[in-house]
Amino acid sequence: MKFNKVLNSIKTYEAGKPIELVVREYGIAPKDVVKLASNENPIGTNPAIAKVIRSHADIAHLYPDDSMFELKAALAKKYNVEDTNIIIGAGSDQVLEFISRAVLDENASVLMSGVTFAMYEIYAKQMGAKVYKTMSHEHKFEEFMEAYNMYRPKVVYICTPNNPTGDATSKEDVIALIEAMGSDTVIVVDGAYMEYAAAKDEKYRITPNDLLGYDNVIYLGTFSKAHGLGGMRVGYGIAQAPLIKELYKMRPPFNITTLSLRVAIEATKDDSFVQQSVALHQEQIKRYEAFADENSIGYIDSYTNFITYLFDENLNSSHIADALLKRGVIIRDLASYGMNAIRITIGTEEQNSTFFRHFSEIIA
Amino acid sequence: MKFNKVLNSIKTYEAGKPIELVVREYGIAPKDVVKLASNENPIGTNPAIAKVIRSHADIAHLYPDDSMFELKAALAKKYNVEDTNIIIGAGSDQVLEFISRAVLDENASVLMSGVTFAMYEIYAKQMGAKVYKTMSHEHKFEEFMEAYNMYRPKVVYICTPNNPTGDATSKEDVIALIEAMGSDTVIVVDGAYMEYAAAKDEKYRITPNDLLGYDNVIYLGTFSKAHGLGGMRVGYGIAQAPLIKELYKMRPPFNITTLSLRVAIEATKDDSFVQQSVALHQEQIKRYEAFADENSIGYIDSYTNFITYLFDENLNSSHIADALLKRGVIIRDLASYGMNAIRITIGTEEQNSTFFRHFSEIIA
Question: What does pTM read for this prediction?
Answer without folding.
Answer: 0.96
